[in-house]
Write a structure and sequence with these properties.
There is one protein chain. By secondary structure, the protein is mostly helical. It has a single domain, classed as lambda repressor-like DNA-binding domains (434 Repressor (Amino-terminal Domain)). Helices cover 57% and strands 9% of the residues. The chain is built from 5 helices and 2 strands. A two-stranded antiparallel sheet has the order 1-2. α2 packs across α3. It is globular, with a radius of gyration of 11 Å.
Length: 69
């Protein structure tokens, strides 16, 4: 899939664990893991907004487009 989720990069930069971020955002650790590991097929805008708020970043910091080979 050409959309890459850079959630793990932002989490490392902000020094926040997956469990803590999941709790702050209001999603399960399992769903956060699915996002973090590029297994998600969709992301709700409300989830994206909450992630950006907690990580103090922009959506483009979390999502990247790469053309498929």
């Amino acid at each position: 899939m050409p959309i890459i989720v850079n959630l793990d990069v932002m989490m490392a930069r902000r020094k926040i664990s997956a469990g803590e971020l999941a709790e702050r955002v209001g999603i399960t650790p399992a769903n956060l893991s699915i996002l973090k590991n590029n297994k998600a097929r969709a992301v709700r805008f409300s989830t994206l907004e909450a992630l950006c708020r907690e990580l103090e970043c922009q959506p483009a910091d979390l999502l990247e487009y790469r053309e498929e080979d």
